[in-house]
Fold each of these.
Amino acid sequence: MDWQEILGFIGGALITLGLIPQVWRLYKLKSAREISLTFTWLFLLGAAFWLSYGVVLSLPSVILWNGVSLCLMCAMIYAKIKYGS
Amino acid sequence: MDWQEILGFIGGALITLGLIPQVWRLYKLKSAREISLTFTWLFLLGAAFWLSYGVVLSLPSVILWNGVSLCLMCAMIYAKIKYGS
């Protein structure tokens, strides 16, 4: 992996890993009122597009981070449905 | 732009535009308790890495969406500082 790819890899890692404390916080507080449902669905859909982009162009880090993001956004949507108002 | 690039372009657009209703919601509710500060900073940092990746490789859609994301995350961090607990 050359250094430019490392920039993209780190960028993807930071955004995806950042979703973990966010999802965790919603389940801990048992509250998701402030979360926009539009945000969660657009993010889910966006990650699905990026995942297909990664699959088509065989980009491992794009596949990895967007696959993980997809799972985390499913957990966030579930929290929103369960705890949001 | 070939069709693979369109996938990435749409993915970036969806995620970035999804941040708008999320930021809007925080300012409307005047509350950001549920937002994880770790999430906002990691997302900001991740978008900065993607932006530099886009600049280095001259990828217009990566530059565009991550530039916009950076601004939106600054607005989210400001909301968190102002309204979060």
Note: The CA atoms of residues 19 and 72 of chain A lie 7 Å apart.
Amino acid sequence: MAEPVALIVGAGDGLSASLARLLRSAGYRIVLAARNTQKLASLAADTDAQVYGCDASSPEQVSELFSTIEGPLRVVIYNPSARVRGPITELDPAAVHDAIDVTAYGSFLVGQQAARVMVAEGEGTILFTGASAGVKGFPQSATFAMGKFAQRGLAESMSRELHPQNVHVAWINVDGGIRSAALAEPADRPDSMLDPDAIAQTYLDLIRQHRSAWSHEATVRPWVERF
Amino acid sequence: MAEPVALIVGAGDGLSASLARLLRSAGYRIVLAARNTQKLASLAADTDAQVYGCDASSPEQVSELFSTIEGPLRVVIYNPSARVRGPITELDPAAVHDAIDVTAYGSFLVGQQAARVMVAEGEGTILFTGASAGVKGFPQSATFAMGKFAQRGLAESMSRELHPQNVHVAWINVDGGIRSAALAEPADRPDSMLDPDAIAQTYLDLIRQHRSAWSHEATVRPWVERF
Amino acid sequence: MAEPVALIVGAGDGLSASLARLLRSAGYRIVLAARNTQKLASLAADTDAQVYGCDASSPEQVSELFSTIEGPLRVVIYNPSARVRGPITELDPAAVHDAIDVTAYGSFLVGQQAARVMVAEGEGTILFTGASAGVKGFPQSATFAMGKFAQRGLAESMSRELHPQNVHVAWINVDGGIRSAALAEPADRPDSMLDPDAIAQTYLDLIRQHRSAWSHEATVRPWVERF
Amino acid sequence: MAEPVALIVGAGDGLSASLARLLRSAGYRIVLAARNTQKLASLAADTDAQVYGCDASSPEQVSELFSTIEGPLRVVIYNPSARVRGPITELDPAAVHDAIDVTAYGSFLVGQQAARVMVAEGEGTILFTGASAGVKGFPQSATFAMGKFAQRGLAESMSRELHPQNVHVAWINVDGGIRSAALAEPADRPDSMLDPDAIAQTYLDLIRQHRSAWSHEATVRPWVERF
């Protein structure tokens, strides 16, 4: 039987790499898609992954990406997001529009294509990487609030619509900074930043849930947070 | 002293008319803006209103609208929304994009311009007309969920940012159908649809709140709903 | 026609006094009930109110209170709450139990009696004074979280059950400290505490809402809060 | 090294049995506590469990239970709940009080004792079995709403307080009926009721989360629900 396929959109940062490695070890064939694929060579080699360039906010490119993927697509994960910080009075409307396109419209485009494949095949899991900005609108962060709220609304609507068609949809609120080589946590505050492998484990837990007990939302947050 | 000005964007339906009449009677000079201004002649006459054509999802047109308004702008209300219903697998991406622009991006554009004026003048109220689709993602309604969630995230962010600058921002969840000549309620179910005058009263209540006790969100819903 | 009656339970602090005065001026006959009635003499005189002693967490005393009230009971407001602060490991179980009784069980007892009268008469408004502790569980505040969450759950259930019987129920999140003679706000932070008269106005706005557009929840918060 | 201990309070139904078996297989020594221990003999034999009688709403009995447990207590799960259905006007106040004691006050008592042990030992996981009644107040269900909302408020407060002390707390919304011998699902609706083993797996996933990415809340729900 063909290996199940997991597509990770917005690959590149630490979370995507952890997801790729964990899903590879769990038996998935990995497909990585990103606007900029140059940085993915090493990860692709590690995980025997195919790599595609794709601007997730372009309907044509997203459609093209999905038409290229072969084999049984069982997992699709959407990671990209964009933010424009600053007082609302000073934000550049064009930049705001672009950011919403990346965070929310791209989620829709990828989610739609994933739904088409998975509804037809009668199974699959679609996961959106969210943030606390999707449950709480912070000051000076109107753009990110719009994008992440929209993404959460999309995921909720898709859950209610697609769960009865045996397609599992969940939105994961990654609430905090992700630990990386570039962004290390203070030595005296161990585990105060999210370990990308730990986040990836929760994604895999969701993928493996039995359909009689599916979650449509999850939040992960470092223990030190009083949130 | 100059009359305070209330701008109603997306004028045309029953709620906008009720808002215009109530705010006029409360002492505001009314400005109506809509993509299609032809239907506004009668309302404009009734409320001594100025009328402007404006596509609220166009940065240029929104900017132009605000530069035209004279006098102390104290109230801005954003009503437009768009929805595209259907299974997510069948939605037209371009129509989805347009709908998000109307519901969410237009809210941002108008909210931003309103914030600029009101922060500079040190007072004012900005109200967004929402829907239950902004708190719950319904099946077959991914587009409206995205737009209304985004709008609510925007309003929350603006509340937290602008309240300390003495600008009041609130999101109103109008949860149900609005009674109109075209859309009458069943005779045996009195008040089972929202009376637009009743909704407008809650908007005015919000406008009149003392700043020591501001609400940033409100929900209005017919008594017969078990919701 | 007999004057409509408004019952305020847990009278005594600044909010209750503001409510009594505002509802009196709006044409209600006022009934005040509190565990300790000694401090109510002045307010009762100001508002021509009847005063009753009542422990709101006693089923017998609450039942007795309602059997005593004459005339058309149109408004019932529940104010009492109790909190026990401290690390959860150190809380006294008996004190926790008592506090839940005051905040939540008393809300039920008074709400139930109010519902009996109002369902029978076919109209009325029941308002519960809540707090942000009912939407967010803060550290070192397990007791208040339990009581206020329970009260909000009660109010939601009652809204869904009683609205279709023409009885309006709402939970008001009074999110912040209330200004009083004993608790004054900093001189350089005007209106940074909730003015009790301003809160009371929102209660009256809720009471006056048309049933085609009822709110079941409201939050009021000082403008300076970034919350 | 001594086996880690998992205490399951309110043992007896299908979920408790699944939890006991899964945690036993995961290497925990199992302690079962319930008001009525007679029905636990078979499960205790299967899982090498100790069994204690305990009324979870009694401070003395809960304190006694924890003083009896030996070994490193690493997991505590609270399952009991009680509901009294019916129109709010007809509920028996004494029955309502008892039900809140079982659902909410018992959660506090057990949670407090667990916190004392785990804070002292510097690790552990406390899980509360919730229901959708804790996020939405349904009509004719005021009692259950109060109990489950209170329990969720408790869990949130404990999460914020105890996570920084390395004690993980989570509230699990088990949203739907649990499949059992007594309560079978329709043959034409496979997996339309929650499989208790599937729920238990999510509990174990939570227990195993890395502390840099803890969840404080989870919802599980059958795929067929449009919720």
Note: Chain B has a mean pLDDT of 96.
